[in-house]
UniProtKB/TrEMBL annotation:
It comes from the Bacteria. InterPro entries: DUF1178. Pfam families: DUF1178. This is DUF1178 domain-containing protein. It comes from Pseudothauera lacus.
Length: 146
């Protein structure tokens, strides 16, 4: 995954995670990337400073905190959305790698409508979208983070 610094035409700044630069460009071209603050789909990559090592000596190891600090940039609205998305993921049936097939079966009325979650590669997700099947990427649960 690549993290890009992004900005919208209303000068809101945020981060986006993408599989590649090409994936970012493709999603932007399809209007799938939007500003979390205002919803604008006029998004551009912003310059980001790469890490540059300035010393040759190894720095002393930093002791990791027991729990990661809260994201100070996350607005209360964004925190509410994140909590809602994680709740949706917890309540959905995990169909694993069968996600594309199960989503199609639900869409075509071949099985009972229900919330599902699972994994699929980018091509499979694009095919679902092209078929008019609504999908929503969900953040990983706390137990799925490294």
């Amino acid at each position: 995954m690549i993290v890009f610094n992004l900005g919208c035409d209303k000068d809101h700044h945020f981060e986006g995670w993408f599989a590649s630069a090409a994936a970012f460009e493709a999603q932007c071209a399809r209007g799938l990337v939007s500003c979390p603050t205002c919803g604008s789909t006029r998004i551009a990559r912003l310059p980001s400073a790469p890490y540059v090592q300035t010393r040759h000596s190894a720095a002393a190891p930093v002791q990791a905190a027991a729990t990661p600090p809260a994201n100070p940039a996350m607005t209360p609205e964004a925190a509410t959305v994140m909590a809602l998305l994680r709740s949706l993921a917890r309540e959905a049936e995990d169909v694993g790698a069968r996600f594309p097939e199960e989503a199609r079966r639900i869409h075509h009325g071949e099985t009972a409508a229900r919330s599902i979650r699972g994994q699929a590669d980018r091509d499979a997700l694009e095919e679902l979208l092209d078929e008019g099947i609504a999908i929503l990427p969900l953040p990983p649960g706390d137990d799925e983070l490294h």
